[in-house]
Amino acid sequence: MSLEWIIKILQNNWPMFLRGAGMTLLISIIGTLIGTLIGLIVGVVRTIPVPEKGGKKGLLKTINMILSAYIEFFRGTPMIVQAMVIYYGSAAAFGIDIDRIAAGLFIVSINTGAYMSEIVRGGILSVDRGQFEAAQAIGMNHFQTMINVVLPQVIRNILPATGNEFVINIKDTSVLNVISVSELFFQTKTISGNNFRYFETFFITCIIYFIMTFTITRILRAIEKKLDGPENYIIAGNQMQVETTEDIAKKINGSVGA
């Protein structure tokens, strides 16, 4: 490895590295957000209690079967194969010409949604059953219970897993180079093909990926700590009592002094 070549490659190609990193972050952020939204919706639907009889039972079972098939398919196949099938397959089978970036966003979003739906479902099931029963006792239906009682807890609990999925997406966007999305790995291949210095070029890319994932990880940990709040809490009632006692003492001292 030559340090001089690394510096030279950076000086000559930094705009391409920057564009590639920007595209990687764009697809990862949007894909993770949409995928998390898909996961929340699928997770909530899959936890709807199925009645013992009636037409609603058959409908819910059918929906659950479709959602289970979606989850198993996208969790059980590589993203690189999904990209080939969705982008090239849609053009060959249906004559649909999808924009490469739109296809990349779609692939990352639905893939993330499949993983996040199971994470959300696990988070919902981890909430104490008594909270569901209490919400139902005051007249809430399933969706009201989810929105007002369960999901606020679930979102906090799944935040580490969501951050982990975001970091995975930053790295996995590299597979989108097979459909010519100009993300970081695609740009790196172009640069290395021009200068034939593969080791130095991909070493730079390795460092860029590390900087992105390390930074995102630290930001997410800071958000988690912020949501957790301070380690030591002051009970509001006690604090109010202390302030009241101090005020009374000041008044008494003032009266005595007068």
UniProtKB/TrEMBL annotation:
Keywords tagged on the record: Amino-acid transport, Cell membrane, Membrane, Transmembrane, Transmembrane helix, Transport
Subcellular location(s) of the protein: Cell membrane
Membrane topology per record: Multi-pass membrane protein
ABC transmembrane type-1 domain sequence ranges: 21-220
Major localization class: membrane
InterPro entries for the chain: AA_ABC_transptr_permease_3TM, ArtM/GltK/GlnP/TcyL/YhdX-like, MetI-like, MetI-like_sf
Transmembrane feature ranges: 20-45, 66-88, 202-220
Coiled-coil features, chain-numbered ranges: none
Signal peptide: none
PANTHER family, per the entry: GLUTAMINE TRANSPORT SYSTEM PERMEASE PROTEIN GLNP (PTHR30614:SF20), MEMBRANE COMPONENT OF AMINO ACID ABC TRANSPORTER (PTHR30614)
NCBIfam families: HEQRo_perm_3TM (TIGR01726)
Homology family: Belongs to the binding-protein-dependent transport system permease family. HisMQ subfamily.
Protein name per its UniProtKB record: Amino acid ABC transporter permease
Organism: Clostridium saudiense
